[in-house]
Design a protein that fits this description.
CATH class: Mainly Alpha
Radius of gyration: 23 Å
Number of strands: 0
Number of helices: 10
CATH superfamily: MetI-like
CATH topology: MetI-like fold
Largest sheet: none
Shape: globular
Length: about 250
């Protein structure tokens, strides 16, 4: 179609070349925004990875006790609060009342590493609180079921240490449903974090897409959607591979 138009009307072909060049520039801009939000998301994932599993295991081991009730209450509160409420509370505490961290803005790590990390702490805490609340409930539920299985009882009777039973035997099988939840949470990080981007003034890909929709910037919208879809597909593919690593009974052959 482009070739036919190019032969018939050279001006139209020029318009197509302009669109391609604009798409390339928009793609580069969206990639820059994606890098910004990927850094924030990576910091958030590292920050909450240990907490969500540790809290879930701690609650499962102390099922029905004060620790279990405390983790459950904190999880329900974290799930119930929307992102803008959690972000506002975090801003009030750390940036306004205690004044120990900057409130909004984004500084690339390549320009100023210390300042960049400081600006990423509050948005990472905001997103991590929600993800920890969500995943810790799933880990707790799965660990409670796994700890009552026959092979765990056999491990206790063999005299294995508590740490080895929990982290090597119980958690390995309890992780399978949790991996699915974590992979689905990537969709939340790609889409739901738009609110966090707006509050903390982070130039992320979600914020860029909102501006592009309002301005009817089609090349930017296409580039952003393509990056989001590709990221989500790759993460879910890696989750499928993780099933094979954790559970030898699963095979895609």
């Amino acid at each position: 179609m482009v070739a036919v138009l190019a032969l018939a009307e050279p001006g139209v072909a020029g318009q197509f070349w302009c669109v391609d060049a604009q798409w390339a520039r928009s793609g580069a801009d969206v990639v820059d925004r994606a890098v910004a939000i990927a850094v924030a998301g990576g910091v958030c994932t590292v920050a909450d990875a240990g907490d969500r599993y540790s809290l879930g295991i701690w609650a499962a081991v102390r099922r029905g006790k004060t620790a279990d009730v405390l983790v459950s209450v904190i999880s329900y509160i974290g799930i119930s609060f929307p992102e803008f409420v959690t972000a506002t509370l975090v801003l009030l505490l750390f940036a306004d009342v205690w004044q120990i961290l900057p409130d909004t803005g984004y500084v690339p790590l390549s320009e100023n590493f210390i300042s960049g990390v400081q600006h990423l702490i509050l948005p990472s805490i905001t997103v991590a609180l929600i993800l920890v609340a969500h995943v810790s409930r799933m880990v707790r539920s799965e660990m409670v079921d796994v700890l009552h299985t026959d092979y765990i009882r056999a491990a206790w009777l063999k005299g294995l240490s508590r740490r080895r039973i929990l982290w090597r035997h119980a958690l390995r099988n309890g992780l399978l449903p949790t991996i699915t939840i974590v992979a689905l949470d990537v969709g939340y990080l790609l889409g739901g974090i738009v609110v966090v981007e707006e509050i903390f003034a982070i130039p992320g890909i979600g914020r860029e897409l909102i501006v592009a929709v309002q301005a009817r910037d089609l090349p930017t919208i296409q580039a952003g959607v393509m990056i989001l879809a590709a990221t989500y597909s790759v993460v879910n593919f890696l989750a499928d591979l993780a099933y094979v690593v954790l559970d030898k009974r699963i095979s895609y052959a």
